[in-house]
Fold each of these.
Amino acid sequence: MQRKNGQINRNTLKKILKAQKKLYLKPDDKVLVFITADYDADHIIADVLRDHEHKIVSMLPIKRPSEDYKLPKEVLEGKTVGWLITNISISHSPMTKQMMEQGMFIISNPGITPDWLEILKPANRSACRERSALILSTMGGDVGGTFHITANDGTNLKLKVPFRNWQEEIGTRMGVGTNGVYGELATAPYWAEGKYVLEPGDFLTNPINRINERIILTICDNRVVDIKGGNQAEMLKRILKETYDNRAYNLGEFAIGLCPIEPKKIHCSVVAEKLLGGIHIALGSNATCLKEDCPEINKFQYGRYAAGVHIDCIKFDPSVFFEPEHRIKTIMKNGCMTT
């Protein structure tokens, strides 16, 4: 079997799924697998999950990030895990949010490519955990404060994050879900102001992926108010507009990459966002990045929400400064960790 876009073969896909099964599934889990038809891999999934109760639901390929979809109530009943194997991420769609609210753990696998195997190696998991612990220690723990992000390309963005809301995606079953591949320390901002520039070689969420032209985002009061660039910037505008949700322009996430691997070629955004030396902000939904019990949830204009889209804007080699209580701590300098 070949995935229809030719990116991954039968054996590699099976290894990637088995590695995630070992990391995230419990023996008594009841798994709902939602897979888009471009994978044509029902028999592989059935083999990987042969010792788990599971149901496989197929659908046509997704057209835009966090596009909504519907599942019958009886399909969800009793399930403890939702495994989304799709061409484009739907982890922030309203249906996925409903699954989370039902208590299901979400494994979201958008656009699986062969380089996922490299990230899923045990040595990388240990490195991600160590790096996350060092960053949290430098910040002073699970604290809130102001981040200042700068770069030579004109990026100059400040954002504020709440305390007791940091989430580690480090290869363990924690929180509401995972991308399967791991390597980020994330939270949700409630305020942001400034400019955020993406240069060729940076990434946007699949289907755009690698940036080949400069894109400039102007952000005011935690909302993107202007997008400048060429064809890829126009595509981003269309994706946001087609949600018909004003919250799609809000910043829903800020995250720091942790994984030390250096792929020869980065195939897609879900790998790019995990890499050490990079950060990302995301436009749209914050439901997976803002904890229900966050003590400062009242600072968020819309609370926890699913906006029908979640666009990760991944930037490499920035400088990142953290200011808790008027003290400046350097987290990253030109893409190099200082912790």
Amino acid sequence: MIGWPQQRSSGDSGQRPGIFGRERLLRREAVFAAEAQRTQGHTEMVAKPARKSVAIVVPPSAQSLDVSGPLDAFLEANRQSTGGDLYDVRLIATGVSRNIKAGGMSLVADSSIVDDVRSIDTMLVAGTPDYALAYASAEFHAWLRRRAPKTRRYGSVCTGAFFLGAAGLLDGMSATTHWQHAAELAERFPAAKVVPDQIYVQDGALYTSAGVTAGIDLALKLIEDDHGRDLALTVARRLVVFLKRPGGQSQFSAHLAAQIADEGKIRSLQHWILDHLSLDLTLDSLANRVAMSVRNFTRVFQGETGTTPADFVEMARVDAARRLLEESETPLQRVASRCGFASPDTMRRAFLRRIGTGPNDYRERFRR
């Protein structure tokens, strides 16, 4: 027989439930559990990162890798993500027609500047060998000036910087482009601060990269900024590229210079220098190594490489020091010694000549 609930004693915190009371409590707990599960699911759904809209703007006769390099990097980030697609990437044509050429490829853009109305998180203007078109694209200039301020970040790959410059978007800003066109960019747009020897340059919301494959480096940097180093490194491995290239952010390092010489002796010597930077690499010792007189060695070396032996050695030592500063906490004294500099002060002066900043400032800036 079911009776009324017992009278609570003074030590009880509340009424003890009978069978009906226990049923009500169980139903209430079930409701609370369902609500908690629904709330947790909602929280997880909210925590999932929203897809970022990436627009690659393709001028006429674009350099194909300027388009496909960043495109593949962002799409690979989608494939490697465990939380769904991270980027919604689209191509935008700069003319009325969506049919565009990129190198030997015929592409159909998702939209054109005439009809594209979707929001843009990240906008990159691809480069083209016909970058002289940048000076005769008034409608495109107006579109860039209208859309760029509404993006979170915008920029260019290679000679795409000329289109940004013609639209007035480089004025007062630091930027880079392909090393062969850096002097022309600086001459055409004197209000811009052109940095000729960097893989990519960030100045606020503006991101510009050097030539062709450097667009992949820039895309990896953007992916790392958005989703962390681990994902960017995974994407780099899948694309079989460096997350950060040997030689740091320089687009023309001693490693590249060592591939230019035609003379077998000189090219072999350059690679030997790169492997023995801590030695005393005087002009006499280098000439002796290739069995030449100092005068003849200097003439042949400069003719083959476009630089003097002393300049090449200093470039190689600065490149090696940059890598150590970027990748380790090695003290400056040890960095200088390992890279062949007589002292940290000698290294500092070489850094100021080559990249315009000292080793301490370089390490700090690179890690920001």
Amino acid sequence: MRPLLSASAVVLILGLAGAAIVLAQQDDPRGPVKLAQATSASGLAPVVAAPTFAALPASGAPALRFEPPPDSAIPDNDFGKEVKLGQAIFNGTSPLAAPFVGNSLRCASCHLDAGRLPNSAPLWSAYLTYPAYRSKNKHVNTLAERMQGCFSYSMNGKAPPLGDKVLVALESYAFFLAKGAPVGAELAGGGYPTPPKPALAMDFDRGAKVFESKCALCHGADGQGQASNGAVVFPPLWGPKSFNWGAGMGSIKNAAGFIKANMPLSQGNTLLDQEAWDVAMFMDSHERPQDPRFKGSIADTRKQHHDSPMDMYGQVVNGQLLGHGTAVAAKAVK
């Protein structure tokens, strides 16, 4: 059978398409995607060299690795200023987004290395993931809506209005970090990994021992974290200044994945899987601020929002029913 297109024609089409992409992006104030170019063997047209992660992996193939651009690549223009503001808010959420924050955490408390680090739910992955349906609120969420949820639950505050400068800056920073990543591909480290199922049932007392030996040095024996010159260095893990009962880290599965991959800090993957599950269960078995969806009944709130063996809300631990909530932090949102 005669081929539909000759090899030279295919090269020409690919070259023109690649050139068109680059030209179309030259006037983008956010800065063009910098792709290496090579001249085709025929000399007919330039061919854009694809990034090493651009092709979708075959079924069953390992997920692709992605490295976000360095800070030096932030453009020196008005959009770049917005990116830098978003980065500053991400690393200093409490002082820079104070009207919407009700605890001592910052975005980078759970999304490490300023939202760059794989396996800590990096910000670049969030940009590629949304819009997406979320069972938590039963509709398709935009990235901005997802960030609103972070402020309501993880930051124990209130959601910035859509279009607010805080959300715009954070979205700009997310766009920058995700620049060049292939949409639709499975990227390694895009969320929190799930450790293998533990051999033994999760245990509070074993988790307490892991916490004492591996975690208390940074987070304090009482789990309330540490601060230096008024800035939180290691975040509180429970109590009035931590995330509330509605936050994603309140899921033992999420917490175990984050801890296994990243804790102790800079020593990720040194805990045994069993240790990660046990200490995650221990952490999530302490009282914290009330779930904002609470309407007067712990039992009803558990049934509607926490009905999972991975969730300690509404369960009894050491004779105490969890879910009463803690006193609102002194700096809480009014």
Amino acid sequence: MPTEMVLVFDKIGRWSEIKLDIIEKYALPYSKILSSRTNPEFHHVYIDAFAGSGTHISRTTGDSVRGSPQRALDINPPFKEYYFIDIDGAKVDELKRIVSNRPEVHVLKGDCNSKLLTEVFPKVRRKDFRRGLCLLDPYGLDLNWEVIKTAGQMRSIDMILNFPVMDMNRNVLWSNPERVDPVDISRMNTFWGDDSWKEIAYHQQTNLFGEVRGIKESNRTIALAFKERLHKVGLPSESTLALLQIVGEMAQNRQNGLTTTNPWGYHFPRVDLSEND
């Protein structure tokens, strides 16, 4: 007899609630702009690669919080189609329940790294006058570089990426990197695309005893290097990428709040409707 899957709503902190507000405030004008285009008309879709169940619980208040799928579904004018992906069967079942009367919504169970490349991105091609807003908000280092690279090079996908610096700091970017689990190094390589992050994340420094030690760079330095890496693989200078969570100094200054322009100067992706790229 199969084991019944039990849904447990994720508890989220204040930063995650703010992040959801930011995503919603970008998705609304994005849909308005694409909906208004008539010559040619664009078929615009919303993609959430780590969709969750659609509902969270606030650690601050204990109240339920609308997740990114719920917020996307409530946007008016609506997107033409929605693709929600999650690897958790219970969360997928809850999403299917929520959208049971929405035929334009597709809920996919599985690893988003394969689902996006084989089932979703091929349906959002620029030559078919399709555009997609793709939210990549991984639970950690669960995203493959190939997905990010492909989305950027398609020129029909606008990405919002939550840079998983918390997982990096907790499991990979240690002050003594030789002690890091090889499994976590492999996860970092998969996210970054290779192991070039090692030279970026540390610099050599000689102490008073003449010993050379690797000193970890700031989160900001690592994030900026990742952005530069995106440019080198073909993304335009005004990259369709918003690095929403570069926490480092941000985490230490939460009392300053957060606006749609983050402290490192990244701006939300501009909706480029030009036809001759």
